[in-house]
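#structure-requests
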Amino acid sequence: MKIQINIFFCLLFLNSFSQKYRDLAITPPMGWNTWNTFETSIDEKLIKETADIMVSSGMKDAGYTYIVLDDGWMTMERDKNGDLVPDPKKFPSGMKALIDYVHSKGLKFGLYNCAGIKTCAGYPGTRGYEYQDARFYAGLEIDFLKYDWCNTEGITAKEAYTTMSDALKKAGRPIVFSLCEWGDNQPWNWAEPVGNLWRISGDIYPCYDCEFKHDTWSSWGFFKIAEMHKNIRQFSGPDHWNDFDMMEVGNGMTFEEDKSHFALWCMLASPLIAGNDFRNMSKETLSILTNKELLSINQDTLGIQGFKYREEEELSIWFKPLQNGNWAVSFFNKSNKEIKIDFDWKKHHVIDDINNLETSFNTIKYDIRDVWQHKDLKSTKESFKAVLASHDVITLILKRK
């Protein structure tokens, strides 16, 4: 009896230091966000049309669940009671009616705000209103909050995000908490009890590995983001994900680059938040985003972030452990010319020293599945040979026999 009481109080003590709602993101969240394509030019019609297309296109069936309104959904001033005010011109039916519509489609709904006094686009931020805003979100019945880091002079990230996490918990509605402070304060070191995912870098840009310079900051190509923080994969896992930012698939890159972007995010176990306009989405873009075999890599319940195994000139090879002793491997051509691959499995011993997992292809045989071509290949008893176009990718699942 004494032991049971002690266990109870230990659990109660631990829970008091755990602000977030747990188990809301056991696998990386999947959905769509307005910012990459529309920035603040959002309205009720766009959201309803997007929700409809998510269902009719097969995106919802593929696992894309969240529709998230980013910056610009509110008016420039709070009301007399200090509450946020959804913009009545953009959302004439009211935010609650829009959320109900999204929910009626079997989807979930998210909103955006900021830890500072103003959002990045100049709308009312949450500083000083954390508990009031959390109750407001709970009353609207949202499911996801993206929380940015603009205009935060004089406050610290860990304290600000912990306060908002606690406010969401006390508001009483389970809401996925997405920390967006760009990795400046190393959230992977402290955010596991605070949020369900956290950004690890500045904003993404629709290019392979470029840097796009703004006045005082830069946006980054997806490969640059993937390689910015190479030593933090041990902090990512079920319900606490390294977030490599919203996707730019379908936003102007080549088909091969879109494939590589999506494959890399799947290998990294990053949240998959689409950022393109579904209303004019090409068949090729849809085929990438709904590739169920790639999605199985991202959503693998082992929840391990993949890693770069080696780079041979401009061929970048990444591995990701999967459940049941399986592995995923992706070959990325980072060059501007075609590359020939001749990968002799027997010469490679892959080690994930963080998770104490390894495989030697000399002693273990795997069947090979090409998840882009959707076909079975020969086993790892023979070398893997292929020709890979510039900025293209080949992704394989190795199934242990």
